[in-house]
Request: fold
Amino acid sequence: MPLALFALAVSAFGIGTTEFVMMGLLPNVADDLGTSVPTAGHLVSAYAIGVVLGAPLLTALGSRVPRKKMLLLLMALFVVGNLASALAPGFGWLIGGRVLAGLPHGAFFGVGAVVAARLVREDRQARAVATMFLGLTVANILGVPAATLLGQHLGWRATFLVVTVIGLLAMAALARLVPHVPVEAHQNLGREVRALGRPQVLLGLLTAVFGFAGVFAVYSYLASMTTEVMGFGESSVTLVLALFGIGMTAGALAAGPLTDRALRPTLYGSLGALALVLVAFRFTIHVPWLALVTVVVLGAVGFMTTTPLQMLVMNKAKDAPTLASASNHSAFNLANAGGAWAGGAAVAAGWGWTSPTLVGAVLAVAGLAVAAVAGLSDRTGRTAKGASRVVAGSPLGTDTGTEHDPVVSGSSSPASGS
Reply:
């Protein structure tokens, strides 16, 4: 794999750390700024709002910017947002800093996924995209627990200062390791918007909204489940979250080669497995060691859905995949917010702390149903060659209607990017 993927993974590590660390710092922020923990929880939503708004907006504004330069600009905005968060004089300013830090999230992963796919051979594209996402999963194993401990001992502002430094290091790695990747000569915003409106792309985004919501219906309340149901102390919450991160990393590692081999079966299998594991968690959560094993498996099958979903929307957007790729992260964050809301509604209704598992299972089944409908409607357009690819050496815009045909032209040398 090209070293450029390392630079993308480092960037993803920083983004993943700042996205999820706020969940562990809410009490510290609330105490320091004189507000309640539920009110401080709006800081999580503020970041998600930034992602949802920024993904399509910044991708559209940068549609004519060379890919490497776009990645650097997005990471620079990430640095500014985290620095603004660290220096925020009050709660309102911190809300603004979180929105600002979230704005480049989706656009970065959207552009980064296209760049990652263009750096490798056709048969390794999903693995390349999964390698970039490894930074996001490792953030949940190392970055978030370490940043949470740092914030608890040195103050939450120190956490965002460290993330700012990570962002600067990521910019240096991007500048040094990522090759020049030009925008295709015929690329334009109108083409990107039209590609985003294709039925298969929209169905892919809808699959992400429902399917991934199943993960966050549970993950959002995993800390409370740890103390209220599993019977562990508060000091064990970090360990349980780290186990979930280990599962996410395992899922990401498995998803790449599986998606390269069979995209839709991997998507169907991961969503189906997610629903089954969520139902099982409803019962294993009462047995501590089984609960911990299930947390790892849940992280694995949950995150295994991300790579096939990412590749699906890029493939179906064909010759203009960047906006669709970025919008997929808006869909993921809508899933985060929607899953958290649905799980919380079940708890608030008095159904108990285990109820989010069943809510998540229903959402996962809904995502699987949407994916199945999309696959069925797409079947008539398939040829004997199978699934399309995002990057290849054939002319950009080649559209055979299959899932293995090249749809975005790269260089004849995959590592050169130009």
Summary: The mean pLDDT is 83. The chain is about 75% helix and 0% strand. The first strand starts at residue 387 and ends at 389.
